[in-house]
Amino acid sequence: MQQPLAFRMRPRTLDEVVGQQHLVGSGKIIRRMVEARMLSSMILYGPPGTGKTSIASAIAGSTNYAFRMLNAATDTKKDLQIVAEEAKMSGTVILLLDEVHRLDKTKQDFLLPHLESGRIIMIGATTENPYITINPAIRSRTQIFEVKPLSEEDIQKAIHEALIDKERGLGNFDVALEEKALLHLSRATNGDLRSALNGLELAVKSTPENEQKKIVLSLKIIEECVQRKAMTHDKNGDAHYDVISAFQKSIRGSDVDAALHYLARLVEAGDLPIICRRLMVVAYEDIGLGNPAAAARTVTAVQAAEKLGFPEARIPLATVVIDLCLSPKSNSGIVAIDAALSDIREGKAGDVPDHLRDSHYSGAKELNRGIGYQYPHNFDNAWVDQQYLPNKIKNASYYQPIDTGKYEQALHQQYSRIKEWKKGRNGKK
């Protein structure tokens, strides 16, 4: 039986790896390790289908070391022993150990001395955060690298390669992939190249030729093969981004029903990363100090959604969308930082006042660093009469409170009190 397209198209060298240029690009860490032939065991973590196995395969192909694949959850200690014996007989073996976070103590204890000796170079693959899920004994003997979701451009490049490769890909088929179908295939799989390539292969091999002996892959065919409906895209994909824009603006406008509608369209399109990113932005840009607890709940909901994946992810997402819609709104945070940035970009900065400068080094006193600084906690209300801004902008004011929620109302009251204290100070002078 022929192996899946995604398996056949695995890179044979680092130059064939799609994406992950922060690791395998020219001058980057994994490429440097391979070129110097100074490989060490590593853990690659990131979402499914983003290239963890591909990088391991490419490392083996670039170094000509033997390459073996095992699964920490399903393969046994005996399987590890076979790999270790091969390493003793023939030299270094690169072992891709999938689901490395599920390595039990017995297998771990067997593996550790072989990692120490360098006979086995383990490349552990996991979708879980290794700093939380992997035993410190393994972590201390490996380098940890994050593998990131592939961009639409990365996936489209891989699709084109698969369509023209006659040896490993689909180059022996006369395929016409419509532009909208290509766009949907590269988006609907959420950076998962494995899903994109396997969906492409299903589409090619299940679609009959037309009268011109050509296999034409339409948007409808791709939708069926990846089991994701496309939102209606125009030529430039503008409708996709229109929905995202409408999603944020509906939450900002406190329209629960509209926000849930646009959320449902994004869920149906499978755009979990976009939904999560947009919700995080909304929570801090549009709700902000109006309801800081809702922003914290958004972070928790996003983490739950990413952990669950679809379809269950829709539940925490819907919950937090309703929460954000009905929360008091405040954009004072983004307005304040943008005002401060505007001053910086216009050259309005100036020197840090001497009494605020770092004084924790020899000679600081001679330079008048830190002299005269007053510790606010030694004074009533933890406030003392001293200047913090540089002279050039000492009267600048960036934060403009918005009284739409109880929390920011309290902040406003304190802000006003401090301003009154400053006025009293200035009046005395």
From TrEMBL:
Tell me the ranges covered by the AAA+ ATPase domain, including all copies. 38-150
Domain of life of the organism encoding this protein? Bacteria
Molecular function in Gene Ontology: ATP binding; ATP hydrolysis activity; DNA binding; enzyme activator activity; single-stranded DNA helicase activity
Entry keywords, A to Z = ATP-binding, Nucleotide-binding
**Keyword presence, ATP-binding:** yes
Sorted alphabetically, which Pfam families does this protein's record hold? AAA (PF00004), AAA_assoc_2 (PF16193), MgsA_C (PF12002)
Q: Name one GO biological process term.
A: DNA synthesis involved in DNA repair
Q: Does the keyword ATP-binding apply?
A: yes
Cross-referenced InterPro entries: AAA+_ATPase, AAA_assoc_2, AAA_ATPase_RarA/MGS1/WRNIP1, ATPase_AAA_core, DNA_pol3_clamp-load_cplx_C, MgsA_C, P-loop_NTPase
Q: Matching SUPFAM superfamilies, A to Z?
A: P-loop containing nucleoside triphosphate hydrolases, post-AAA+ oligomerization domain-like
Instruction: Provide the family line.
Output: Belongs to the AAA ATPase family. RarA/MGS1/WRNIP1 subfamily.
Protein name per its UniProtKB record: Replication-associated recombination protein A
Species name: Enterococcus rivorum
Provide the taxonomic classification. Bacteria, Bacillati, Bacillota, Bacilli, Lactobacillales
